[in-house]
Write a structure and sequence with these properties.
Number of strands: 6
Radius of gyration: 15 Å
Structural class: alpha/beta
Distance between the termini: 50 Å
Number of domains: 1
Strand order of the largest sheet: 1-6-5-2-3-4
Helix content: 25-40%
């Protein structure tokens, strides 16, 4: 039976949803939902050797604050190069964003899928559809979500996926979004759920 998802605009997906509110309020009391697999300063520093040795087969990528500033339509060549390196290693990759989905042509040309017509993050159903329909995989533990926000991107943890925290790329971020993101980050720090940041290797 095919599940029908009502399409929503990017502004609706970026706004408050029940799933975001519930997750944000629960995080201080359910620290297991903050468990972080890896922590890096920039997306380009995600270590491919560690992903390989840990059996990661698929990657879901946040866009805003992770691959570039919020709502950007221009991406650094180093970001594209790292995505290409991931693909060459055999990883399946899809961009899963709550913002506009019509700005990733360069990634699509590389072979990256763009998740669309799914519930916005952190809805667990959205992650499950992204895994099955856009990555073609069925084991959530073999997938990592790379993002900068424990509230939205961290929803992957609830779906059984591993979460890689990237320090946010600043710019054009709504104040409410930035504030709640930072509070969730502080909660993860207090509960010691963030591993030491991996430094870029020479």
């Amino acid at each position: 039976m095919t599940q029908t998802i009502n399409p929503t605009t990017s502004s609706e997906r970026e706004g408050l949803t029940w799933a975001k509110i519930c997750r944000f309020l629960a995080l201080p009391f359910q620290p297991s939902r903050l468990s972080t697999y890896l922590s890096v300063k920039r997306f380009e520093e995600v270590p491919l050797d560690i992903l390989s040795q840990d059996g990661i087969q698929g990657v879901l990528l946040d866009a805003d604050g992770t691959l570039g500033p919020h709502h950007t339509r221009r991406f650094e060549s180093s970001v594209l190069d790292h995505v290409q390196a991931m693909l060459k290693q055999g990883l399946k990759i899809a961009i899963y964003t709550n913002a506009a989905e019509d700005r990733f042509q360069l990634f699509e040309e590389l072979g990256v899928k763009i998740v669309n017509n799914v519930p916005p993050k952190p809805d667990r159903v959205g992650f499950e559809i992204a895994m099955k329909q856009f990555l073609g995989l069925s084991d959530p533990f073999k997938i990592c979500m790379i993002g900068d926000n424990f509230i939205t991107d961290g929803g992957a943890i609830d779906a059984g996926m591993r979460f890689i925290l990237v320090q946010p790329v600043m710019g054009n971020e709504h104040l409410v979004h930035a504030t709640t993101r930072y509070l969730a980050y502080l909660c993860a720090r207090i509960h010691r759920k963030i591993p030491p940041t991996i430094n870029k290797r020479p």
